[in-house]
UniProtKB/TrEMBL annotation:
Tree of life domain: Eukaryota
Residues of the Aminotransferase class V domain: 45-365
Name of this protein: alanine--glyoxylate transaminase
UniProt modified residues of type N6-(pyridoxal phosphate)lysine: 209
Taxonomic lineage of the native organism: Eukaryota, Viridiplantae, Chlorophyta, core chlorophytes, Trebouxiophyceae
Organism: Coccomyxa viridis
GO cellular component: peroxisome
Pfam families (alphabetical): Aminotran_5
Length: 389
């Protein structure tokens, strides 16, 4: 006890005020958050069990019901990024031994294959080459053959730029005792999602893309069939942190509220504001805005001789656009030039598209004509500097 304290490790952290460059984030996400959303995030702290904070949580849930287009009251924000939403859905909807059919046409399907296996699912990977969606017939065949407990599809495959049509799948899943789980991380708010009308049972998303909030929150929806599965599980979900029986009880799903974890107070202010902006604009104008800018982008890129990676026009996603890197072009130099010259982020490929494509996001607050014009200009300049124009 009388021994002197050892010498403390010296402080090596920052001592100056934080300095962050201003960048236009036109990759696949995060996108720039709306200034009103950022302002909301700096409001005073509330306790995570304080009634004014519960009111904000209620407002978020009502906003999510609109964005998902559902009457189901089982919506909430998972504290964590899109992956936390993904893992919450898998951990709660998959019981050990359940068959899970996973639409696997990019890295998100591949991750769900991995994740569902970790939670004891018997995974059937429905493989498709990068750049293509699944036809109704392919999905029908996989569902009728395997009668899975869960079918996973990604509405917007951001590693490949593919949009998955969900028409008719709700009925197909109902007829086969299957729950339909959909990833909407890069699509929610940017392309139509009609959870009830399409018979989707569970959805997760992300805060940092079309919804124009910072990363860290995953909007989640469970329809009545998903809830029934959750409530009647024979085993507890293997993740305590993501147990939706417990998180749902914090969000008031079951008529009371009890502490499971500390809600992400400031981020939920931001989410509340992001949803208020969606409500102000309306979903149909938002979808139309994203679609129109996607068309404008491709018009400009086409004039530069650039081509879409996704062959079938019906499969092209408007929120994440994949552009083929032409023979002999240094894609990374184009990305670097865009950042160095214009402070614009354009991304390279991911997973199966690395080195093959550039990816341009058209999302939320960034989905404006002047930003599309700047991206086209950055491509023009980047190609010109390589003597390719
Ligand atoms: N799914 C899709 C379609 C995505 O685009 C992303 C993020 N790029 C994720 C899931 C994972 O989200 P996060 O990085 O927020 O965990």
């Amino acid at each position: 006890p009388d021994e002197p304290l050892p010498e403390l490790q010296p402080y090596a952290g920052p001592t100056t005020i934080i300095d962050v460059p201003s960048r236009l984030l036109m990759g696949p996400g995060p996108a720039n958050a709306h200034p009103r959303v950022l302002a909301a995030q700096s409001l005073p702290m509330l306790g995570h069990m304080h009634p004014p904070f519960f009111k904000i949580m209620d407002e978020i849930q009502a906003g999510l019901q609109y964005v998902f287009q559902t009457n189901s009251k089982y919506t909430l924000m998972v504290s964590g990024t899109g992956h936390a939403g993904m893992e919450a859905c898998i951990a709660n909807l998959v019981e050990p031994g359940d068959t899970v059919v996973v639409g696997n046409n990019g890295i998100w399907g591949a991750r769900v294959v991995d994740m569902a296996g970790r939670f004891g699912g018997k995974v059937v990977s429905l493989d498709q080459e990068a750049g293509k969606s699944f036809s109704y017939e392919e999905i029908k065949n996989a569902v009728e053959t395997n009668k899975p407990a869960v079918l996973f599809l990604c509405q917007g495959e951001s590693s490949t730029g593919v949009h998955q049509n969900l028409a008719g799948l709700g009925d197909l899943c109902r007829a086969n005792g299957t729950l339909l789980l959909v990833d909407t991380v890069c699509t929610l708010g940017g392309v139509p999602m009609l959870a009830d009308a399409w018979g989707v049972d569970a959805i997760y998303s992300g805060s940092q893309k079309v919804l124009a909030a910072p990363p860290g929150g995953a909007p989640l929806f469970f329809g009545p069939r998903a809830l029934e599965k959750l409530r009647n599980r024979k085993t507890k979900p293997a993740s305590y942190n993501l147990d939706l029986n417990l998180i749902g009880d914090y969000w008031g799903w079951f008529g009371s509220r009890s502490y499971h974890h500390t809600g992400m107070v400031s981020l939920w202010y931001a989410m509340r504001e992001a949803l208020a902006l969606v409500g102000e604009e309306g979903l149909e104008p938002m979808w139309a805005r994203h679609q129109k800018l996607h068309e404008d982008l491709w018009k400009g890129l086409g004039e530069l001789g650039l081509e879409p990676f996704v062959q079938n026009p019906d499969d092209r996603l408007c929120t994440v656009n994949t552009i083929k890197v032409p023979e002999g072009v240094d894609w990374a130099a184009v990305v670097k030039n865009a950042m160095d010259t214009y402070s614009v982020e354009i991304a390279g490929g991911l997973g199966p598209t690395v080195g093959k494509v550039w990816r341009v996001g058209i999302m939320g607050y960034n989905a404006k004509p002047q930003n599309i014009a700047l991206v086209i200009e950055a491509f023009r300049d980047g190609l010109k500097k390589q003597g390719k124009l």
